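2024-03-11 09:14:02 DEBUG pipeline.ingest accepted 1 chain
2024-03-11 09:14:02 DEBUG pipeline.ingest length=97
2024-03-11 09:14:03 DEBUG pipeline.predict start
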Amino acid sequence: MNPDVNITSPELFTEVSSEVRITGTAAGEGFISYRVLVGEGLNPREWIQVAESTEPVNNGLLAEWNTSDLSGLYAVQLQVVRSDQRVDTAIIQVTLK
């Protein structure tokens, strides 16, 4: 696990519903911005952005995701953009009920 790019909650494969608080870390050397994206299925073909910020986060709230009209398996992806144009990612899967 990358200490500068990770999702700590919800945990991998947990069941979630309604308003989901996505927490973790988006920081580190050369940090420019982060975004949180979600997609349906194990390997989504389409991603929807639910949050973005130019402020680093250390073990805090990254996004709030309203899942009230959704169900099934979803992937949650955190992308951190660096000053050298590198993008670091962390992905978890959750089940919406």
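2024-03-11 09:14:41 DEBUG pipeline.report The chain has a mean pLDDT of 97.
2024-03-11 09:14:41 DEBUG pipeline.predict end
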